[in-house]
Design brief:
Length: 200
């Protein structure tokens, strides 16, 4: 039941973009079209889950035993950069259209604070390896969900008349704020589930 709680909480209650405000750059940049948002969500899900596993193992079996915890951020960034490079090579060969559609935002996964944030959060929350994998994958699903929903809204906004003062980034930021408020409606769900399953 704890894994279900982590899963629901990471997607809806503590959404990485809309509640913790990590990963805003791709959220605003790759959300014009749903298919691009889906591709970005899939790429982030793969990188986030894999990097969390690798960084968890590096932390547990290299950094902590050797007393090198102060190198955590540097080591994690290097691992994430290497994984993003691998995803970029795979996408270039497997799906050139998606590779072209993502453009500059694929290398930006390297500096996506959501990926690094999750890798650090699982260490801070003292999760086990399995809990870390569930949390990372759930967080990536939450990231993809927010991205796709936002892309759908932006596609609809492109077909309506918007007042001149609200055009461009202004309406995008207002919409992101309203979407964030909508996700705040899930804030009591994790407490209710804990009570329901007797985890409190």
């Amino acid at each position: 039941m704890e894994y279900i709680l982590i899963f629901i909480s990471a997607i809806f209650v503590n959404n990485i973009i809309l509640s913790q405000f990590l990963g805003i750059c791709p959220f605003l940049g790759v959300s014009q079209k749903i298919d691009t948002a889906l591709g970005m969500g899939a790429a982030v899900a793969f990188v986030m889950t894999l990097s969390t596993v690798v960084t968890f193992l590096i932390q547990q079996y290299i950094l902590t035993p050797l007393g090198l915890q102060y190198l955590q951020t540097l080591a994690f960034i290097l691992v994430i950069a290497a994984l993003v490079q691998m995803v970029e090579i795979i996408l270039k060969k497997a799906s050139p259209a998606l590779y072209q559609a993502l453009g500059i935002f694929l290398p930006l996964i390297t500096t996506n604070c959501a990926v690094l944030g999750v890798a650090i959060l699982v260490i801070q929350k003292d999760f086990t390896l399995l809990e870390s994998i569930v949390y990372a994958f759930s967080t990536a699903l939450g990231f993809a969900l927010a991205l796709v929903v936002f892309a759908g809204i932006r596609e609809q906004l492109s077909m309506v008349r918007i007042p001149k003062g609200m055009q461009g980034m202004a309406i995008v930021l207002v919409t992101a704020g309203l979407l964030s408020l909508a996700f705040m409606g899930f804030s009591g769900v994790d407490g209710g589930l804990k009570t329901l399953f007797g985890l409190q």
